[in-house]
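Structure tokens please, single chain.
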Amino acid sequence: MTSSTVADSGAAGPSTGDGPGRRSIGRAVIDAVTTANSWMVTILAILLAFVVGGVIIVLSDPGVLRRFEYFFSRPSDALEAVWESVSGAYSALLRGSILDPEDLREAIAGEEPWTEVFEPLSETLTYATPLILMGLAVALAFRAGMFNIGVEGQAVLGALTAALAGFGLSLPAGLHLVVALLAGIAGGALWGLIPGWLKARTGAHEVITTIMLNYIAGSLLLYLINLDGIHHPERNDAISKPVYDTALLPRLAGDQLRLNLGILIALLAAGGVAWLLQRSTIGFEFRAVGSNPDAARTAGMSVGKTYVLVMAFAGGLAGLGGASVLLGIATSSALTPAIIGGIGFDGITVALLGRARPWGVVLAGLLFGALRAGAPGMQAVADVPVQMVTILQALIVMFIAAPAFVKEVFRLRQSRAGALGQTLAKGWNG
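Here you go.
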């Protein structure tokens, strides 16, 4: 072989660096953030929700609107007022949910205890605990093709049965907590099993049956609270006897912070659901039935049995979420008609935001927990009503449900995986 041939063959060899055969890291990042993949659409949907939320904050602030009356003579006044209003609201939200730099400075200087620094994060994790568990209940059913709209009722039954075990039994600490949590799981599983059995036996649509069971659960709770032996003997309002201290979730950072063992249970539950779906035979059947029940039936799987099992599992997760509210969050550690307070319905939005993936649900639960934790501070500091958090949640869900709109707003390129709508729709069961 001549030297010229060697040179030619070397020139034709594999490219290195940023040549045509290899993309640079920077180019890969640019491609990722400009392509309409599900993660980028989710992130941009959240960003867009906060932008629209900022517009609503401005429009609801009379002080800012007054500056716009003379906008063309002094536009800087209006723009400065807009920035102060929106940045003040969102910074108060961050300080109330993650960290207040002023509290950190004072703690370092020894002027206040460190518990003040960690309180916002503690509140975020505390609020996120039941949201994660109830989001998992919705997500697990979604993966099997079931729409579990009954998380609220299942959580109510979980709280109810946990309370009955919590003040109806006298057991040692530790054992009492385990029994109360298992009772909550059993109560939720029973309430979830009913619509699963109805669908398997009669074909009744789970959306209708679970919604009706939500109403039944709320009425059953109100009825039982007022019965002798359950109602608090020293109160005239609708409230049960408090749960014994031995059944309460232990706090992880002292009595001054509400963070409790529930967050660890929620993370373990997320890991368990992920393992169930990806590593177990039952989880494979769930996903197969969710993708194509006819094909699953042809393959020898019992579709009816799958419906019953997945709804029982989902109900158990929701019941555990309800028990975590009663045993770890409720101020009085007692049943009231509003013990769950709509958290079950928030679990549906958490599952949607997390795209029915266990760890996606965890991240979505943390986001919604942060919004809940930061809302009081946003109202106190920036004079923005706490209902703004509900608006933000609704906007996030709306934009998540309209990926084509998000793609158009941010001019994202089409994903290689196929049509955006098909990719995101497949994400529920794939």
